[in-house]
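Chapter summary example.
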Amino acid sequence: MLAGGLSSRFGQDKALYVYRGKPLIGWVLESMSGASEVFVVANRPYPGFGTVYQDLRRGGDTLSGLHAALAHAKHDWVAVAACDQPFFNADFWDFMLGQIKPGSLAVVAVERGFFEPLGSLYHKSLEPEVLRRLGAGELKMQALLHSIPHVALDKAELEDRFGRYLFINANYPEDLP
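The structure predicted for these 177 residues follows.
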């Protein structure tokens, strides 16, 4: 789970914002509770929320967080979500895992050519390519996803199946339903 942003538009640390009785970070981590390993990638501590790893290469936004997640992961596939995506659940992650195809390096939702890089699965073998991109200043997640073998899932179909707010990105508290 990535909690690396500054939350400047949100007005407070998004990860700790209490939504429906629980911090946003808690909702996301709960959705991943069936995973063999769960950890947070953030550049600040989150006591009480498990292991927290910092970015290994700072300055690359989501790509830096993805790199840290891939570098620290012990398993081949890594589920990646942001701290402000409280509508994922275990059924969603199980479904995503069921979509993995041989040779694919990511399982990701797409809408009209735009990938949803968070709420996706990434193969650990991507770590060297992500590190290379960070070193070269190629920081766009869209470019990475367009360049690798992936399974593209229709975002609208996923939202129909798991809820219309599935991929919400809450930049302000009022963005949350």
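To summarize the output: Helices lie at 24-31, 62-72, 90-98, 127-136, 141-147, 155-162.
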